[in-house]
Amino acid sequence: GAAQHWRDVRIAPIYEGTNGIQAADLVFRKLPLEGGQVVDRFLKQIEDLASELASDETLSPIGQGLDEGAAQLRKSAMWLGGRLATEPNDAAAGATLFMRLAGVVIGGFYLGKSAQIAKRILSEPNQSSDFMQDKIVTALFYAEQILPTVTGLSQAITRGADRFYAIPNDRL
């Protein structure tokens, strides 16, 4: 009833604040870990899977989408990392979108792995499963409909903070 809606509405601001905190932690603390090598190693895993999937006739759209996703994530990570020390407002302005971009790409990575496993299982003798086929279709849908959003996210991330500060505080 109404009480549940009230509780749900009260939780929303907590989630909003948490998203910002997690995004700032990702950009300001995790992104620069080991000089960016932690992120680089994970991106390499994504790129390797993208390459494997791209060479598979059925799964190639997933590989292509992941390849572009990894490229945009790498581009954004490098841009943000380059501004942490000199232009921290730019890094802060892009943090929430960077977290979303990372989530989209990482989601594609795990769906791609799932599709790869499902295809392998379906290739075994006497294996037929709607569930496994649906894993593949879900990953293909994600690659074709969700992964393409990374380009816009990356463009927004790398625009910087100028518009954030274009209106003086006294006019907000």
**Average pLDDT reading:** 92
Distance between the termini: 36 Å
According to DSSP, the number of beta strands is 0
The parts where pLDDT drops under 50 for at least 5 residues are none
Structural class: mainly alpha
Number of helices: 6
Folded structure, characterized:
- By secondary structure, this protein is mostly helical.
- It has one domain.
- The chain is globular, with a radius of gyration of 19 Å.
Could you name the key traits of this structure?
mainly alpha; single chain; 0% strand; 6 helices
Q: How is the secondary structure organized here?
A:
Layout lengths: L1 H29 L6 H18 L5 H24 L4 H36 L6 H16 L4 H8 L15
Helix pairs in contact: 1-4, 2-3, 2-4, 3-4, 3-5, 3-6, 4-5, 4-6
In short:
The chain is mainly α and 172 residues long.
